[in-house]
Fold these 2 entries.
Entry 1:
Amino acid sequence: MAALEKYLNSTEKGRSLFESEIRKIKTPVCKVFIRGGKITPVEFKAAGLTVNSKDAEKVKAKFPYLIEKNGNKILAGTAARARTKIKNKRVAVLFSGGPAAGGHNVVAGIYDMLGADNTLLGVKAGPKGLIKGDLFEIKAEDIKRIRNTGGFDYLGSDRTKIKTPEQFEAVKKTCRDNKLDALVVVGGDDSNTNAAFLAEYLAGNIKEDGSGVQVIGVPKTIDGDLQIGKNLPISFGFDTATKVYSEMVGNILQDTPSSRKYWHFIKLMGRAASHVALEVALQTKPAVALISEEIAEKNMSLNQIIENIAGVVIERSKQGKNYGVVVVPEGVIEFIPEMTRMLKELNQAVAEHEQELENKDLAEKRDILSETLDSDNMALFASLPEYIQEMMLFDRDAHGNLQVSQIPTERLLIDMVKKHVKKQSPDVKFATLNHFFGYEGRCGVPSLFDAAYTYNLGLAAGALALAGKTGYMASFTGLDQGGKILAIPLAALLNVEVRHGKDEMVIEKSLVELDSPAFKYFVKNRERWAEADLFNSPGPRQLWGPSAKQMPVTVALNQGYKTLEFKI
Ligand code: FBP
């Protein structure tokens, strides 16, 4: 075989030159973990900070063990006074929910913290694997292979919610069968809510000596909606995803004045909150970026949104710029108040008239629905493009609810803006293209920020396991000044929310706040970005060189940092 061919074969299975090089990168480690040049466990002490549930009494009734033991006090990781050897602990780790870059480094961090005297087990395929008892021992050679790599493929993941008594019982059995001392759940708001319930359930009488199994959470989600002010600046995966999207949006922006013929409507992932859209807007400075939380708070109608976008299109056309970029957050539909009202009524009407609607054409269906829907809701429904009306009547989940994330919002906006522009200014050229960037950003090689952030979160989770703590989520903050390790009590984070018509205790999703420095900065500048081409094309995320140490812009602004550079 020719030498080049031989080399090419040797790069199979994640051994491209790039992947081989990134495995060698030494991620920065918070100095609290280093003693004598080696990774060392830390002690956890009260940090003088608290988290406060709005429903503290109800939480206390449901989580007597965790509230009694941890209360609402945040702990800080501090250098241990003496080196104590902890041996023979068995810790398992699982991924839960959608993938996010850096998950493998969480595993590496836990592994390195536990050291050779303890055992780390991997749970295959997320919570489902925990219920089934599908665990395996993680070895040093695996860690070498997965370090700094993207994806969740080493363990796998799923979205099973552990909720029935049988599922909790099965988890208990898995813990006993595998002689577990601790379980680390790497997930978003729902998975960390689940971790709180597991921590309470597994608190006692699990092991032979009558003690419990510790449960520790790690904050993950590209959506960035698991943040707790200064105590948790961001969930991991957000930085990588937004850097990937910013590169792609930046490239498209660079194309617009080059080809001078298209308006691009780009939907960005982020099921509910608009953190991703805001971050990408701050990194790339497009002509328009919608922020769902602003739309909801200002009670904007779909028509107003369309008018605003059309206004920018017409104004730019006057300057000869028949091109531009509109950034659209994935979840925007559910934040338009009149839309949510209409969809609620539509869901009920479709369920009531299920049989009548069958085998009818769209006009006939509208007639049937108009007898039930309120006139405003009916008018809004009828104003939507017909393919969207069809989708809204057919694409439903097992509970009969519309799968809003399936709606091609970017196409809907294009069609409605087109109609509006044609009516207002028939001579304006408005050629469009639509895109959806989502899966492209979840599994790429982690940015240096995410690689370091996740490795330190893994070290923190491992240290919490060694310190015998349960019911905490690991956090890493103070990212402009060397970093600070925190442990946030999970039960105290819970609040009562109505989900699927029932009261549930959950960790609230953190949404974009309109009085946050990041949103204010956006508002201050967006008109200039709409008018003139002031866009950025930030390029691929870099792992070496001056831009490698850049953290998310929204994080730096909201945390009040003076610089974009993370310093660990
Ligand atoms: P997590 O909150 O579980 O991290 O997932 C977030 C997300 O990436 C959203 O942005 C997106 O809407 C969703 O997952 C897509 O889910 P799926 O992987 O089931 O298609």
Note: Residues 238-259 form the longest helix (22 residues).
Entry 2:
Amino acid sequence: MRKKIVAGNWKMNTLPAEGVELAKGVAAGRNEVCDCVTMIVCPPFTHIHSVVESLKRSNVEVGAQDCATEVKGAYTGEVSAEMIAALGCKYVILGHSERRQYYGETSETLNKKMSRAYENGLTPIYCVGENLEEREAERHFEVCKSQIEEVVYNLTEEQFGNLVIAYEPVWAIGTGKTATAEQAEEIHAYIREVLRAKFGAAAEECPILYGGSCKPSNAAEIFSKENVDGGLIGGAALKAEDFLAICKAF
Ligand code: PEP
């Protein structure tokens, strides 16, 4: 059976003390969520240490929102995968559409980041998804396919066995507009087919999360679909109560 995962992407929100409070709130409700759900919070780099400390023994994992392409050295402002792993992160979000859009991340960049993540024992949460124009032109299948072929197809079988994919239609991120459960299932099933073409039966084990205005009121319906294995949550992850309600939607 595939892992169920709900990950909260806090983006550039919360000050350190607020982040710790939020993490504690999430940990406080952990026992109300099925053990079968892996819960992850992804705070800004500046709070990773204090959030990891506050989540010790909580069974809530911590991830980073990005990592550097390079191993170490003269790269001002960058944070390496090794640093993130040393702080206690188990996961790293890579290829989020905001990184692709605002910071020019390409498949070339992401191939390097994926390598750094695996070298340091981190599980990448690799994001794919089309923008509004591409959806309207019915190019969403081909966009997701190439985002997978250009990066995920370069992984070894072992690396692929330790990968999470997040399908996030850009038009649904932070807009309040959600893909319908049917739209999500259609493309998740397609993504799994693309994975199967390269990795065969191992594709059945790869968790594919939905992200884009997922909230307590729509999570259960979206998560009920066969190929939706959880969610990557932005706005609704900033309130412990909402994040927990989403985690309980399974
Ligand atoms: C995200 O950016 O990963 C996301 C899903 O954001 P939101 O839930 O706010 O749409």
Note: Residues 4-247 form a domain with the TIM Barrel fold (CATH 3.20.20.70).
